[in-house]
């Protein structure tokens, strides 16, 4: 199984680049930028990563970002991820970034956008991996903030392919972001949203009906609504599922009960992804392997899921 998973060509469609910040790099960048960390060493960082829900993770995720300061920091972060991805036979990745997590710390748009672009261009040349960016809005902030972010992002229109919606889900439903998603649609961008990770099925309905998303990130709790499952299957909306994330954040009681199998039985285009690999204990192949073991996926099922990921890409190479 290990070899099959390693050797298959795969796409990764749900990875937050800031969630690929390994403790080792956090330490290196903190030193480079003379930023004090609330940890004495790498072991202390790792032992702090004990989450029991989405918010307890997000608090550390936003704190970790503080070490990202210069264009080289963003370059190093992106290049390290793409190098790891290429080593796992990921042929293309559509990668989330959180501009508001950086502009709120007075980092300039040029700093992160140019760092990401340089890493993506060099990884394409050196490693052969194709990567695109999807800009996410932080849903715990008001839509007015997302609208300002969108206007600033339009100065970099050719550097990203779509917009998404992430951060604290419950209490921040997709419908609150209708206007900014309409603007993104008018600009010809692809649309995705995190929905049904901790929120119930109504969040997934809203992502589809009010935002008009082209893929759904997570989608787990759509499993409780049969007419919703049928709608997702009929519209061929891919789900970008993240098993180790769900396990670590306790969005599933047990990986053996992961919703992916049932979605697959209903003909939904399911994919496996890593979400925030530096925080959740594994990159893409580790996610495939964990779910293969827990759900007893067959080689044909693994091939189907990998093929789904290639079909669900917005950019076809
Ligand atoms: C995230 Cl796992 C998850 N859910 C929602 N927003 C996020 N941002 C980074 N990781
Ligand atoms: Zn995510």
Automatic annotation (TrEMBL):
Q: Which residues form the Adenosine deaminase domain?
A: 10-316
Top-tier EC class:
hydrolase
Protein name, per record? Adenine deaminase
Q: Where are the residues marked Important for catalytic activity as a site?
A: 218
Keyword match Hydrolase: yes
- Positions with a binding annotation for substrate: 276
Q: Which CDD domains match?
A: ADA
What is its cofactor? Zn(2+)
Q: What does this protein do?
A: Catalyzes the hydrolytic deamination of adenine to hypoxanthine. Plays an important role in the purine salvage pathway and in nitrogen catabolism.
Q: Give the residues annotated as active site.
A: 197 (proton donor)
> Its GO CC terms?
cytosol
A Pfam family recorded for this sequence: A_deaminase
Report the EC code(s) recorded for this entry.
3.5.4.2
The record's InterPro entries line, in alphabetical order, gives:
A_deaminase_dom, ADE, Ado/ade_deaminase, Metal_Hydrolase
Organism per entry: Aquella oligotrophica
Q: How is the cofactor bound?
A: Binds 1 zinc ion per subunit.
């Amino acid at each position: 199984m290990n070899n099959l998973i390693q050797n298959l060509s795969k796409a990764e469609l749900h990875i937050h680049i800031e969630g690929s910040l390994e403790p080792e790099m956090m330490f290196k960048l903190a030193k480079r930028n003379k930023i004090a960390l609330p940890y004495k060493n790498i072991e202390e960082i790792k032992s702090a990563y004990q989450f029991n829900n989405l918010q307890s993770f997000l608090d550390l995720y936003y704190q970790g970002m503080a070490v990202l300061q210069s264009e080289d920091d963003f370059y190093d972060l992106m290049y390290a991820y793409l190098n790891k991805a290429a080593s796992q036979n990921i042929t293309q990745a559509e990668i989330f970034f959180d501009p508001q997590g950086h502009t709120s710390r007075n980092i300039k748009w040029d700093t992160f956008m140019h760092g990401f672009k340089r890493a993506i261009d060099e990884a394409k040349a050196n490693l052969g991996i194709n990567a695109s960016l999807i800009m996410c809005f932080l849903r715990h902030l008001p839509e007015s903030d997302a609208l300002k972010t969108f206007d600033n992002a339009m100065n970099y229109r050719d550097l990203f392919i779509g917009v998404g919606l992430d951060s604290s889900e419950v209490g921040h439903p997709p419908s609150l972001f209708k206007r900014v998603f309409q603007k993104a649609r008018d600009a010809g961008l692809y649309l995705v949203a995190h929905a049904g990770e901790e929120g119930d099925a109504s969040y997934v309905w809203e992502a589809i009906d009010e935002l008009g998303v082209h893929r759904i990130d997570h989608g787990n709790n759509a499993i409780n609504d049969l007419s919703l499952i049928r709608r997702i299957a009929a519209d061929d909306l891919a789900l970008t599922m993240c098993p180790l994330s769900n396990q670590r954040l306790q969005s599933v009681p047990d990986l053996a009960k992961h919703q992916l199998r049932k979605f697959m039985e209903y003909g939904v285009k399911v994919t496996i992804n890593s979400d925030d690999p530096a925080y959740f204990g594994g990159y893409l192949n580790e996610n495939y392997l964990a779910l293969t073991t827990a759900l007893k996926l067959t080689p044909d099922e693994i091939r189907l899921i990998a093929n789904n990921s290639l079909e669900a890409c917005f950019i076809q190479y």
